[in-house]
Amino acid sequence: MGLKKYKWHKIAGEAADIQWTKGDVAEVQVNGKTLCLGRFNEEWYGFALLCPHAGAPLTMGYIDGACHVVCPVHSLKFNLKTGRDTNDEGYKLKTYPVEVRADGVYVGFEEGGLFKWL
Ligand code: FES
């Protein structure tokens, strides 16, 4: 299996520009689309705005103590690294890598992936 290639999009000029909720989630815009960021142990993760179970906005969820985002509606938990739900119910949250660089914060979108809208 080859390494994934990403196209990186700048979402903020610096890390301090990101507005976090009390649940350690942030809403960000990328080319007119809305995504979420989550932070856990100094690492940042990107993921889809809407829960893959029934579409709840994950900006209203929170990051737990084990690197999961917890949905605010039915409390399914999704691993921020893999997107898999912890109950193994088959729901998968789309995730994106995040890099905090000297010149800003970037989210990576897989090149050649299904999401051509970026
Ligand atoms: S809408 Fe997220 S767990 Fe049901």
TrEMBL record:
Q: Does the keyword Ribonucleoprotein apply?
A: no
Annotated GO MF terms: 2 iron, 2 sulfur cluster binding; metal ion binding
**Listed InterPro entries:** Rieske_2Fe-2S, Rieske_2Fe-2S_sf
PROSITE patterns attached to this UniProt entry:
RIESKE
Domain Rieske spans what residues? 8-107
Q: Which cofactor does it need?
A: [2Fe-2S] cluster
Q: Which UniProt keywords apply?
A: 2Fe-2S, Iron, Iron-sulfur, Metal-binding
Q: Return the PANTHER family for the record.
A: FERREDOXIN-RELATED (PTHR21496), RIESKE DOMAIN-CONTAINING PROTEIN (PTHR21496:SF0)
The family annotation for this protein states:
Belongs to the bacterial ring-hydroxylating dioxygenase ferredoxin component family.
For this entry, the protein name equals Rieske domain-containing protein
